[in-house]
Every structure is written in structure tokens, then in C-alpha cells.
Amino acid sequence: MFQKINFKFKEEPDFEKLRGSVVTSYGRSPRPILTYYRLKDEEYFKSLLPDDLFWSPETPPYQVQVAEIIDEAGGHLLPHIDHLISACANYYLKTSESTTHFYNIKPNGMGFVYPGRQSANIFTLDQVDKVTDFKAVDGDMYLLDVSNIHSVETPKPGKRQFITWQWIGVPFEKVRKSLKY
Predict the structure, then answer these.
(1) What is the DSSP letter of 173?
(2) What is the pLDDT of residues 91-132, one digit of tens each?
(3) Given CB 3.0 to 4.6 Å as the disulfide criterion, which of 31, 98, 153, 163 pairs with 91?
């Protein structure tokens, strides 16, 4: 469901230099709000990358975006399955001591459909059973199987900022097996 990746940039990225226009946003206050952004300065981003990247040329990511979860109260981004994205590698700039949980759906779990989508992908905590979790620290990178139900729990108000490499239609296991480190 996840794997830590030994990856470091040449220098720590500046989130504000990377944050471009909004791609999409989910949630509403007082619950956590997750927003994805386009890369604003691709040349700056490329200048930060090490010479040897962590993925295989046979399984390149579809896109790279930056993301931010703003949580005004400390709470839980509900259990969900990402739309279209099968796997992602998140480099955490700021974690706010958040924990990422993975779940199995309970036999009676139905989920509900996010507005504008076609299939149920959001669940309440009573519809799922926790399987495993991890707590990243600033500067960590993890590969995630976001085709599985997962959530983010933040113990206090704060922001979680990360850079995300996203794969569409490439199974997590194929990406995981192709990792260079």
C-alpha cells in the first residue's frame, strides 16, 4: 500500500516558487481542504532534481503537481480513493505531523460519490477497517497505492505541503518494482 523511497532533491524546494494555478480542490472548512496546483516554474523544479531519478524509463509518471492540505482545526481528510490516479510518489515539504492511513472497506460500506464524479470514492470511518499507516517527516518521500482507500489525519491545525508524481493506469506494484531506490 506504500513504500518509503530514498530520494533527495539537490536543495530543498520552495513551495511558493512551485505553486501555480489550481487544478482542483476538495473539502470545505472546518474539515481539511486539499488543493492540487500545476507547477508554476518547471525550470526551477528541474534544477532541483538529482541527475538520477527514482523511476524507471519504462514507467514514467504521467504528471507532477504540488499539493497542500489546509486543516484549520486538526482533523481527518476522509477515507477516499483517488480519481484516475493509480499510484503517486509524494515528497513531503511540510507534514504537520500528519499520519496517512490505509483501509479495507467493511462488508456494509457503500461510500458516496463526490460531486461531479461517477463512482463512490469517499467513505466515512465507520465504513472502513484500518490496515496500516505511516507518519512521514519533512523531507520524506513515499510511494502510495491511491487506488486503495486511504486518509490523512492531522493532530493539530496546520498545512501539509507536498510534491506529487502521479501515475495513471499503471498499477502500484508495477511502479514499485521499477523503482531505482
Answers:
(1) H
(2) 999 999 999 999 999 998 888 887 666 676 899 999 999 999
(3) 163
The Cα 155–Cα 132 span in angstroms is 18
Residue 31 has pLDDT above 90, yes or no: no
Task: Decide: helix, strand or coil at residue 178.
Answer: helix
Distance CA 179, CA 168 (A): 16
- CA distances to 16, 24, 43 from 64, rounded to whole Å, are 15, 14, 13
The mean pLDDT of 51-61, rounded to a whole number, is: 91
> Within a 10 A sphere around the Cβ of 42, how many other Cβ atoms?
12
DSSP code per residue over 13-63: --HHHHEEEEEEEE--TTS-EEEEEEES-HHHHHHHS-SS-SS-TTS--SE
Q: Please indicate, yes or no, whether the overall pTM of this predicted structure exceeds 0.90.
A: yes
Cα dihedral sign for 19, 13, 48, 151? negative
DSSP symbol at 85 = E
